[in-house]
User: What shape does this take?
Amino acid sequence: MIAYSTLGVNDMDRAVAFYDAVFAPLGGRRDTTSPTWTGYSRPGDRAKFFLTRPWDRSTATHGNGTMLAFLADDRAAVDAFHASALAQGGACEGPPGVREGMNPVFYAAYVRDPDGNKLCAFVRK
Assistant: This one.
């Protein structure tokens, strides 16, 4: 149902370094690069993910309660996503692990990117 999603960023170069690193373990790759738009996708997926400078040229801010979740192939990819995020200046919002009460088993990690956007990588195995 979702065709694409966007997150506002304040420093495109910093954001590209962060997302190049955290999407690599998930099979995502950058396929669009410009000073104002940077896009990512994964082979076989129709949906796209874009980083953008806000159209009104105001400061990009994160939404309280807003989060984007990305499907991983396995637990190792979730672990690598989390480690890459921290290495690139992200903040931990929940280390990799099984989240109780979910069926099937939900293994996830939560981070914030350098602009404060909350992200999750997960696998149901």
About this structure: The longest strand covers residues 91-99. The chain has one domain: 4-54+66-123. Residues 75-87 form the longest helix (13 residues). DSSP finds two helices and eight strands in the chain.
